[in-house]
Amino acid sequence: xxxxxxxxxxxxxxxxxxxxxxxxxxxxxxxxxxxxxxxxxxxxxxxxxxxxxxxxxxxxxxxxxxxxxxxxxxxxxxxxxxxxxxxxxxxxxxxxxxxxxxxxxxxxxxxx
Length: 112
Hints:
Elements: H1 3-16, H2 39-94
């Protein structure tokens, strides 16, 4: 049995338990003969599939945007730290060489 036939069979079983939005519920989801699919059921299946795909796409897009925002925040922090270090390096070259005054931003020990 092909994947399409299996999917149609599963769709038919699930739709038989509920009322078809297009029909009256009598025979809803059943094919007219062994090889033909009811167009309303086919359209409904396609709509459900596309909606599912759209939902997954939206979810993935939200995750990507969230990660991009996090990365932008991290880049902004890095840029600020680099700017602080450049300013610190400029201040060192402008001042006389005194070990007590050469403390990097944040007061950290550069030798560790």
